[in-house]
């Protein structure tokens, strides 16, 4: 039980929940407001993280300049996907986005010259030279820790991630109540009705997609800073579905449900680590890892059966008619 | 080289096509995007492995064993999970999330039972058939024969048998089918059986062709299978067959040198999705889908 009492471990769980909050906030805007089934959110996260890392390592740019460009690149990717794909029906759009996310991962794996290939960002300068994009961020973390009198870097990261995540959740909540948000909700409910009022449905949807993609790009930046190294394997499609799980755990349509769902998911994921009582104690560590994911799978199924709307969601959102 | 790639493409494509049938019918009937279908395929492959390697049965018997076990599992999943969810009028997102849960549970169960190491069936990997310029392994020849027979059988079943017609009718318009006095629950159960049988078949054939397979291999097949379903038009059973074959052949042929040098083999999966995106932009309803927006 030593890990349980370790502040470092819980800070890590908290940081991951914060990153997932940003990631899922994008999905909430896309699906909760606009009804878009984006199953490729992880691609925008990858684009954000890689753009920042490549600009810092290969172009020698300041991280403070490369970071906003990473977010911008993710938004641009959203625009490029959306322009053709948003003309499709909802379920087809979903498959195109997941296809896009796999294409991004394959390109990142195979274009060694651009991304460092399957070995990840450590390989960005080519074989034999360990590349680093993180020094400026670590200096900033150290400086901020000194100002606040906090020694643990993990706690500083926790504060930074959650300040950004909560600020953006609040902004997204405000955004949902603007006329823009109301039009999006209208499109979600009845596209033809909104269209007949003369609203450019396609443009509204594109804006929601781009905004959500930018949030995923931001999540990618924090992910990159947290681990100071990443590879294409970090952007498996499963990550997108973790995001969807959080969205539905928390509740569709309410911005504040996202951080709640992300925390719940984070602690659920972490808590299954502590299955060290019988019968789990008879299993070796590899098998215990499988049991963890199995239990998470069962919990998801149970949740869908018992409370399909999530913790804070409205039941009508998840039930037919 | 061209004919070799075409033959390879037909092998991969027929596996996609068989798996895509199940995905497409389940979507048509239940509005279920079955995220667990890849792991269902892996389950079939591993039961065949159990019969073939652990019990020493020939593949001719192991394959039906894998198919039957997968069908039984699919049937149980409907009774235990999908039917209760239908009764609760669960929406599209709930069903989708539940299928992610099933996928996780299935894959971890396979990992617990068989471990993560790669496995291979007890077949002769060095036996090769040469037809003209084309060299095919025993596994590829067996896959072509079994898959062609299966595709013809499935197509005939859907076209001619009453059950097959009813399935297509329900995929097309559920309310209308129900009004005509069709026993919906029975047809859904039969669809799960068909989906299970085809998933077990496709999984075992895919494992056979690959040579070695691990518990994650089903999930890697899932995305091309989804792509095949969409390419053919979601919910259209014939479309899924055609989409799977087209996708397999297009993917393999993309590496052909006669095609402006061809793409690098590492990019084959990208080609599959590229084909899908281009096809959708030209024909948004899929190859066989009806033109409708909603």
Explain the overall architecture:
The complex is a heterodimer of chains A (321) and B (294). Chain A is built from 13 helices and no strands. With 321 residues, chain A is an all-alpha fold. Chain A has one domain (7-318): ABC transporter involved in vitamin B12 uptake, BtuC, CATH 1.10.3470. In chain A, α2 (41-58) packs antiparallel against α3 (63-85), α2 packs parallel to α4 and α2 (41-58) packs across α10 (201-227). Chain B has helices spanning 2-30, 37-54, 59-87, 92-114, 138-160, 162-172, 174-179, 184-210, 217-232, 237-253, 268-282, and strands spanning 128-131, 134-137. Chain B has a two-stranded antiparallel ribbon. The model of chain B has no long low-confidence stretch (mean pLDDT 87). At the A-B interface, α4, α11 and α13 of A face α3, α4, α9 and α11 of B.
The fraction of residues in strands of chain A falls at under 5%
The helix-strand sequence of chain A is: HHHHHHHHHHHHH
Uncertain parts of chain A:
none
* Number of E-state strands of chain A: 0
Considering DSSP H and I runs of 4 or more, what fraction of the residues of chain B is helical? Answer: over 70%
Tell me the span between the first and last alpha carbons of chain A.
48 Å
Which keywords apply here?
heterodimer; A: 321 residues; mainly alpha; ABC transporter involved in vitamin B12 uptake, BtuC; B: 294 residues; 3% strand
Element layout with pairings:
The complex is a heterodimer of chains A (321) and B (294).
Chain A: H1 7-33, H2 41-58, H3 63-85, H4 90-110, H5 112-115, H6 135-148, H7 153-176, H8 179-189, H9 191-196, H10 201-227, H11 237-250, H12 257-271, H13 285-306
Helix pairs in contact in A: 1-7, 1-10, 1-11, 1-12, 2-3, 2-4, 2-10, 3-10, 8-10, 11-12
Chain B: H1 2-30, H2 37-54, H3 59-87, H4 92-114, E1 128-131, E2 134-137, H5 138-160, H6 162-172, H7 174-179, H8 184-210, H9 217-232, H10 237-253, H11 268-282
Antiparallel strand pairs in B: 1-2
Helix pairs in contact in B: 1-5, 1-6, 1-8, 1-9, 1-10, 2-3, 2-4, 2-8, 2-9, 3-8, 5-6, 5-8, 6-8, 9-10, 9-11, 10-11
């Amino acid at each position: 039980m030593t890990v349980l009492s370790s502040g470092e471990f819980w800070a890590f769980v908290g940081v991951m929940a914060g990153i997932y909050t940003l990631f899922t906030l994008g999905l909430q805007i896309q699906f909760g407001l606009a009804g878009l089934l984006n199953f490729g959110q992880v691609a925008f996260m990858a684009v954000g993280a890689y753009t920042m890392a490549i600009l810092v390592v290969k172009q020698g740019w300041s991280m403070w300049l490369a970071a906003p460009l990473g977010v911008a690149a993710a938004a641009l990717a959203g625009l490029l996907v959306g322009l053709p794909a948003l003309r499709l029906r909802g379920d087809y759009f979903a498959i195109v986005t997941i296809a896009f996310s796999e294409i991004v991962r394959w390109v990142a794996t195979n274009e060694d010259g651009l991304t460092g290939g399957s070995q990840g960002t450590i390989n960005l300068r080519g074989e034999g030279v360990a590349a680093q994009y993180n020094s400026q961020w670590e200096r900033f973390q150290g400086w901020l820790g000194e100002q606040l009198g906090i020694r643990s870097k993990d706690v500083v990261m926790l504060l930074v991630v959650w300040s950004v995540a909560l600020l953006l959740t609040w902004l997204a909540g405000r955004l949902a109540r603007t006329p823009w948000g109301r039009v999006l909700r209208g499109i979600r409910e009845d596209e033809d009705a909104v269209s007949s009022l003369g609203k450019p449905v396609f443009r509204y949807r594109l804006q929601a997609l781009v905004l959500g993609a930018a949030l995923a790009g931001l999540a990618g930046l924090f992910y990159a800073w947290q681990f100071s190294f990443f590879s294409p394997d970090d952007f498996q499609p499963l990550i997108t579905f973790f995001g969807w799980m959080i969205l539905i755990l928390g509740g569709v349509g309410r911005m504040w449900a996202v951080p709640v769902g992300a925390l719940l998911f984070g602690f659920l994921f972490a808590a299954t680590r502590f299955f060290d009582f019988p019968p789990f104690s008879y299993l070796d560590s590899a098998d215990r890892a499988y049991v963890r994911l199995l239990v998470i799978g069962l919990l998801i199924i149970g949740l869908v059966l018992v409370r399909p709307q999530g913790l804070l969601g409205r039941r009508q959102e998840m039930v037919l008619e | 080289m061209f004919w070799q790639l075409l033959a390879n493409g037909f092998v991969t494509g027929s596996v996609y096509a068989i798996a895509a049938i199940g995905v497409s019918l389940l979507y048509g009937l239940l509005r279920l995007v079955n995220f667990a279908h890849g792991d269902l395929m892996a389950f079939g492959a591993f039961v065949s492995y159990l019969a073939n390697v652990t019990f020493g049965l020939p593949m001719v018997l192991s394959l039906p064993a894998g198919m039957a076990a997968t069908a039984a599992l699919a049937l149980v999943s409907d009774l235990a999970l999908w039917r209760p969810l239908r009764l609760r009028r669960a929406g599209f997102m709930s069903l989708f999330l539940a299928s992610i849960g099933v996928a996780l549970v299935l894959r971890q169960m396979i990992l617990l039972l068989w471990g993560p190491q790669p496995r291979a069936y007890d077949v002769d990997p060095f036996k090769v058939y040469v037809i003209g310029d084309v060299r095919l392994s025993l596994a590829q020849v067996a896959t072509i024969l079994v898959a062609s027979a299966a595709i013809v059988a499935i197509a005939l079943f859907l076209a001619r048998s009453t059950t097959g017609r009813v399935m297509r009718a329900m995929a097309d318009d559920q309310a209308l089918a129900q009004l005509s006095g069709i026993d919906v629950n029975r047809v859904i159960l039969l669809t799960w059986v068909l989906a299970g049988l085809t998933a077990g078949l496709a999984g075992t054939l895919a494992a056979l062709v690959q040579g070695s397979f691990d518990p994650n291999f089903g999930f890697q097949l899932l995305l091309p299978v989804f792509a095949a379903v969409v390419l053919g038009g979601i919910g259209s059973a014939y479309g899924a067959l055609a989409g799977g074959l087209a996708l397999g052949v297009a993917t393999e042929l993309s590496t052909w040198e006669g095609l402006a040098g061809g793409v690098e083999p590492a990019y084959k999966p990208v080609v599959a999705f590229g084909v899908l995106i281009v096809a959708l932009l030209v024909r948004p309803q899929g190859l066989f889908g009806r033109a409708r927006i909603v």
